[in-house]
Amino acid sequence: MTQARPFRSVLYIPASNARAMDKARTLAADAIIFDLEDAVAPAEKPGARDLLRAALAQDYGGRARIVRINGLDTEWWRDDAAMLAAAADAVLVPKVSRPQDLDEVAALTGDAPLWAMMETALGMLNAAAIAAHPRLAGMVMGTNDLAKELGSRNRPDRLAMQAGLGLCLLAARAHGRVIVDGVFNAFKDQDGLRAECEQGRDMGFDGKTLIHPAQLDIANAAFAPSDAEVDLARRQIDAYDAAIAEGKAVAVVDGRIVENLHVETARRTLDKAAAIAAMNG
What we know:
Elements: E1 9-14, H1 18-23, E2 31-35, H2 45-55, E3 64-68, H3 77-84, E4 90-93, H4 99-106, E5 114-118, H5 121-125, H6 127-131, E6 136-141, H7 143-150, H8 162-174, E7 178-181, H9 190-203, E8 207-210, H10 216-222, H11 227-245, E9 251-253, E10 256-258, H12 260-280
Parallel strand pairs: 1-2, 1-8, 2-3, 3-4, 4-5, 5-6, 6-7, 7-8
Antiparallel strand pairs: 9-10
Helix pairs in contact: 11-12
């Protein structure tokens, strides 16, 4: 999977809930995380694995299908990885604190891309090494577990999260990985969700993990280029191309200088808009 594929909304679905997994095939989510870890009680884990294997045989359209296996300190993760990796688009590894954690999973998952849950203090400090792992395709911020480990308080500005979010974002961008923001727990608080999505978007995240279908529309809107952004991107590209044709190195659009770096950003904006349109179409 590449960043050309949209990951605006990444919805967690319990792998023990067959009805929810079936409904997910119709939801406006860019990606689904089928969760075998926190959302499934210990006694239900083997049965959930069987339910998920059947679900992954169904058509989920353009939605990325990501399986979150159980933690490497449990008895279940090896069977999760060995039995489901080939059927999924990626395997999400919980609590990745060092690149060697990914090595353990990679030994069982063939060519399946790996994603890393970034949710420990050690993981934050090792983010660059984790992002550099050759099998890694994406990173997911686990802000709830990180807050628990830090002993931090919940604030609307997520002050305590900023160091970890920034380290992981830098690492992901340095190595060309997808990275999605953590969940917003108050799923009925639409204004709070919108504000946190906008914060994550403005920081540079590709999208947001979600815990309820009611959060999808807000995340999809926040992480998609707006009509104004698409229009500006097109005008920047046109103006720059015209300037180059005239032997100039820069253009001016809306009173602002447009250089090659701005054009690269504009092209990414149009590529993202096109990918979203293709998925919606």
